[in-house]
C-alpha cells in the first residue's frame, strides 16, 4: 500500500475565494487515497478571534467584531457556492455555537481554556468551507475532526501530545479511511483527557502535519506557503533573500528555535526522528521545486536572519548583595515553566539575570508577582529580537543602524541583539 502523504495549507492559502479556488487546482491532479490535507483558519481569523477575546476580557462590546468575522466568511462562501448550498446553514450553526460560547464567563484564571475553545473555531469553519468546495468541484474528501485523533494533556494554548494514544487512534480510526478516501482536517487543535478542546501553540498547524505524519508512518509532509521555499530571511522585512534548495533537519530546527516563522518550532523533531522528508513549497507556484528538509543535506554557511517582534526584556537583580548562583536561575526558570513562558534569549551578569520572552497577555504581571519578593525586577516592552546565524562581522552594524541595542551577545555561529527603534 502507498505511504500516506500530508499536505498542510496555511491561512494565506485560503484567505479569500480565489485562494480557495487555487487550493482546489493544486489538489486537482494530486488528490488521491492516503492523502491528508491539513487546513488552517482563513486569513487573519485567528487574530480576529484573539481581538474578540481581548474585548470581552475588558468588558467591552465585541459583537461588532464578531459580526464582521461572520460576514467575512459568508461573503467568501457567496463567491464559491450557489445560494441554496448546504454550507450556509452549517456556517450559521457554527456561528451560533461561537456566540453561545462567547456568552460564558471569561476571567484571567480561565483565559487559556476559554482561548482554546474560541480560537479553534477558525479551523473548524475553514475546513468545512474547503471540504464542501472541493466536493462541489468533484474532488471528494472526507472531513474529519482532528480532536478525535490528536490527544493532548490539559496545558491549554501549549498542549503536549499524548503520542501513544494519538498514534493508536490515527492507526485505528483514520488509516482504514485513507485506504479509500483522502481526509481533510484541522491544524492546531486537539483534545484533552476530558474531551475539552486544546491548541498546540500559535501557528501550530505545521506541528499537526508532523504529528499525523509520524503516527501514520507517512512518506512525506508538504507545507504550502506564500514564499518559494525556506529563505534565509523574511522577504517582507529584508531585501535580497536567498532560497535554500535543501536543508538538514538540524539547520531547520535551529532556524525555528530562534523564531523563523516559515515552520512551527515543534515540527522538525518528530519528522527527523522518523526520517520523514519535509517539503516547503509555494501555493503561488506549485510546480516550482521549493525546499526539501531531510537528513542528507550538506550544511550551509549562508547568513540567516530571524527577527522576532513584540518581545519583552526582563531583568532580575538580586537584592542581598550576593552574586547570581544556580539557585537563582532555577527559581526564575521554575516560574517561567509554570507560566509556560519560553526564553528566547538569556544573559547573566554578576548580580542579575536577563531574559527575553514573547509578549503574552497576563503573563508578565504574573511572573513579576511570583518573583518580586526575591528580586528587583525591571522590564522593557515593545522590543525586537534580532538573530543572525552564521553571521559575518561586517553585516552586523547595518542591522543596528537607527536602533538602540539593549542587549547583545555572540557566539561562533550566532549573533543576537535586543533592539528598539531610536
Automatic annotation (TrEMBL):
Substrate binds at residues 46, 123. Residues 3-282 form the Aspartate/glutamate/uridylate kinase domain. InterPro entries: AceGlu_kinase-like_sf, ACT-like_dom_sf, Asp/Glu/Uridylate_kinase, Asp_kin_monofn, Asp_kinase, AsparK_Bifunc_asparK/hSer_DH. Coiled coil: none annotated. GO terms for biological process: homoserine biosynthetic process; lysine biosynthetic process via diaminopimelate; threonine biosynthetic process. Keywords: Amino-acid biosynthesis, ATP-binding, Kinase, Nucleotide-binding, Transferase. It comes from the Bacteria. One of its GO terms (molecular function) is aspartate kinase activity. Pfam families: AA_kinase (PF00696). Gene3D superfamilies: Acetylglutamate kinase-like, Aspartokinase, catalytic domain. It catalyses: L-aspartate + ATP = 4-phospho-L-aspartate + ADP. Its EC number is 2.7.2.4. ATP binds at residues 8-11. Pathway: Amino-acid biosynthesis; L-threonine biosynthesis; L-threonine from L-aspartate: step 1/5; Amino-acid biosynthesis; L-methionine biosynthesis via de novo pathway; L-homoserine from L-aspartate: step 1/3; Amino-acid biosynthesis; L-lysine biosynthesis via DAP pathway; (S)-tetrahydrodipicolinate from L-aspartate: step 1/4. One of its GO terms (cellular component) is cytosol. Belongs to the aspartokinase family. This is Aspartokinase. It comes from Algoriphagus boritolerans DSM 17298 = JCM 18970. The lineage of its organism: Bacteria, Pseudomonadati, Bacteroidota, Cytophagia, Cytophagales.
Amino acid at each position: 500500500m502507498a505511504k500516506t502523504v500530508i499536505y498542510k495549507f496555511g491561512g494565506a492559502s485560503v484567505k479569500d475565494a480565489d485562494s480557495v479556488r487555487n487550493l482546489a487546482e493544486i489538489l486537482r491532479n494530486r488528490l488521491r487515497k492516503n492523502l491528508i490535507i491539513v487546513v488552517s483558519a482563513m486569513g487573519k481569523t485567528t487574530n480576529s478571534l484573539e481581538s474578540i477575546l481581548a474585548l470581552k476580557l475588558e468588558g467591552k462590546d465585541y459583537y461588532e467584531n464578531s459580526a464582521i468575522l461572520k460576514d467575512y466568511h459568508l461573503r467568501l462562501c457567496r463567491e464559491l457556492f450557489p445560494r441554496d448550498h448546504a454550507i450556509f446553514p452549517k456556517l450559521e450553526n457554527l456561528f451560533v455555537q461561537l456566540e453561545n460560547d462567547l456568552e460564558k464567563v471569561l476571567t484571567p484564571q480561565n483565559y487559556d481554556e476559554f482561548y482554546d475553545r474560541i480560537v479553534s473555531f477558525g479551523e473548524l469553519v475553514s475546513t468545512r468551507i474547503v471540504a464542501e468546495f472541493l466536493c462541489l468541484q468533484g474532488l471528494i474528501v472526507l472531513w474529519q475532526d482532528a480532536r478525535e485523533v490528536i490527544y493532548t494533556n490539559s496545558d491549554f494554548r501549549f498542549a503536549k501530545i499524548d503520542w501513544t494514544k494519538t498514534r493508536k487512534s490515527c492507526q485505528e480510526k483514520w488509516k482504514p479511511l485513507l485506504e479509500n478516501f483522502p481526509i481533510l482536517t484541522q491544524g492546531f487543535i486537539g483534545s484533552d483527557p476530558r474531551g475539552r478542546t486544546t491548541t498546540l501553540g500559535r501557528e501550530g498547524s505545521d506541528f499537526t502535519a508532523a504529528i499525523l505524519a509520524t503516527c501514520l508512518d507517512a512518506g512525506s509532509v508538504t507545507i504550502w506557503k506564500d514564499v518559494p521555499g525556506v529563505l534565509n530571511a523574511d522577504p517582507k522585512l529584508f531585501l535580497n533573500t536567498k532560497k535554500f534548495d535543501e536543508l538538514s533537519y538540524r539547520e531547520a530546527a535551529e532556524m525555528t528555535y530562534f523564531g523563523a516563522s516559515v515552520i512551527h518550532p515543534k515540527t522538525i523533531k518528530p519528522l527527523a526522528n522518523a526520517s520523514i522528508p519535509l517539503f516547503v513549497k509555494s501555493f503561488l507556484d506549485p510546480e516550482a521545486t521549493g525546499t526539501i528538509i531531510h537528513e542528507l543535506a550538506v550544511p550551509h554557511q549562508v547568513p540567516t536572519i530571524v527577527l522576532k517582534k513584540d518581545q519583552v526584556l526582563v531583568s532580575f537583580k538580586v537584592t542581598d548583595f550576593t552574586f547570581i548562583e544556580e539557585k537563582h536561575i532555577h527559581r526564575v526558570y521554575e516560574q517561567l515553566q509554570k507560566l509556560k513562558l519560553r526564553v528566547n534569549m538569556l544573559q547573566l551578569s554578576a548580580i542579575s539575570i536577563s531574559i527575553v520572552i514573547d509578549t503574552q497577555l497576563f503573563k508578565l504581571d504574573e511572573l513579576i508577582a511570583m518573583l518580586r519578593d526575591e528580586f528587583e525586577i525591571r522590564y522593557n516592552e515593545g522590543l525586537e529580537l534580532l538573530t543572525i546565524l552564521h553571521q559575518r562581522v561586517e553585516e552586523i552594524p547595518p542591522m543596528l543602524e537607527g536602533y538602540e541595542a539593549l542587549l547583545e551577545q555572540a557566539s561562533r555561529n550566532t549573533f543576537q541583539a535586543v533592539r528598539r527603534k531610536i
